[in-house]
Specification:
about 325 residues, alpha/beta, Rossmann fold, 6-stranded mixed beta sheet, binds adenosine-5'-diphosphate, binds magnesium ion
């Protein structure tokens, strides 16, 4: 009988994942990725040396615009893409030395929904559990169906499910082997507001049960609602990596945009202490630090300065503002 080397001293394993609790759920150092040139496109450097340490227990957001390299990083974790250089460990397990054990530590929900439309949700979860070698007695198919709100759809064909149900099934599928880390690539892309709320609640619940969550998003709002840590990736490099609270401190401003009824030739002298900007389109923009000014008072002063307001809107900082705050205005 083959002897499992060192099995006596090794901690008990759950579906191939050692029963350990590393400080870092994910550690990545100097990750580079260059996609090779093809007939149609030249070689493309997608990651330029990513260093990231993701603490166990966190909800960690990888935030960045389209094309930043987020999916490339996720796909290196899941084994879909080979890194060109660097070192990565998942749950303390090096992906080059022990690829199978490392990958057993994560469940990945890819950006694209890829499911066989001819299986039912129950069959989909059973097949996936079989794929991971989860013994029948330890499968959690029914529990996952319930958790994902799909108990009454267990026997429906996947092609008959709504987009939201499919996405929840994908999450269930990623969880069949009870990985300590769940990775979601753009969970909210193309998802309506109601479903997004449901997804967020589900993510929070899994996290409160001890699952470390890593998600990518290009919505600042999503990262700031859900994540306790945010790393910003831009053009294949990490440009910020800190707690959400710290990151938002850099952005504690608000903006009010006023469209006056009649065009102004200059910002009114009475309002100069508020540093308004008169744009070429004729709108007047006020920006202030959160709490420094009350919108009500601001509007009173604008009217008192003789400006009739045709339209107005307020603006919260968005991803673009984060980049400006981090790197200074782009020239
Ligand atoms: N399979 C691939 N082959 C070649 N280039 C790719 C491939 N996948 C992604 N890229 C390129 O790598 C860069 C990063 O893409 P991606 O990781 O998908 O970014 P994100 O997920 O942040 O939108 C982009 O310039 C993209 O065009
Ligand atoms: Mg992507």
């Amino acid at each position: 009988m083959p002897d499992h080397a060192g099995s006596a001293s090794r901690p008990p394993a759950k579906h191939g994942v050692p029963d350990i609790a590393p400080e870092l759920a994910i550690a990545a150092y100097g990750i580079h990725k260059t996609y090779s040139a093809t007939k149609r496109s030249p070689a493309r450097m997608a990651l330029r040396g990513i260093d990231l340490e993701i603490p166990r227990g966190s909800i960690f957001g990888l935030l960045g615009p389209n094309g930043a390299g987020k999916s490339t990083f996720i796909n290196i974790m899941s084994g879909m893409v080979r890194k060109s250089a660097g070192q990565m460990s998942l749950w303390g397990i090096d992906i080059d030395l022990h690829p199978r054990a490392a990958r057993a530590a994560i469940g990945v929900v890819p950006q694209e929904l890829n499911m066989d439309p001819f299986f039912t949700p129950r069959e989909t979860l059973e097949l996936q559990a079989g794929f991971y070698g989860v013994p029948r007695a330890e499968r959690r198919t029914e529990e996952l169906l319930g958790l994902m709100g799909l108990a009454d759809k267990a026997e429906a064909y996947v092609r008959q499910l709504s987009g939201g149900m499919k996405r929840r099934l994908m999450i269930g599928k990623a969880m069949v082997h009870e990985p300590p880390i769940l990775v979601l690539d753009e969970p909210s892309a193309g998802v309506d507001v109601e479903l997004r709320r449901q997804l967020w609640a589900m993510i929070r619940r899994l996290n409160s049960e001890g699952v470390t969550i890593v998600l990518t998003t290009h919505y600042l709002e999503e990262a700031q609602e859900l994540c306790d840590h945010i790393a910003i990736i831009d053009n294949g490099a990490v440009t910020a990596n800190e707690s959400t609270v710290q990151l938002l401190k850099r952005l504690d401003h608000k903006t009010l945009i006023i469209e006056p009824t009649s065009r102004l030739s200059a910002a009114p002298a009475d309002l100069l202490d508020l540093a308004p900007v008169l744009t070429d389109e004729g709108t007047l923009i006020f920006t202030w630090r959160q709490g420094a000014v009350r919108v009500e008072d601001l509007l009173d002063r604008i009217r008192a300065a003789g400006i009739a307001i045709k339209d107005l809107k307020t603006q919260e900082p968005d991803l673009e503002d984060v980049f400006v705050a981090l790197t200074g205005p782009k020239s």
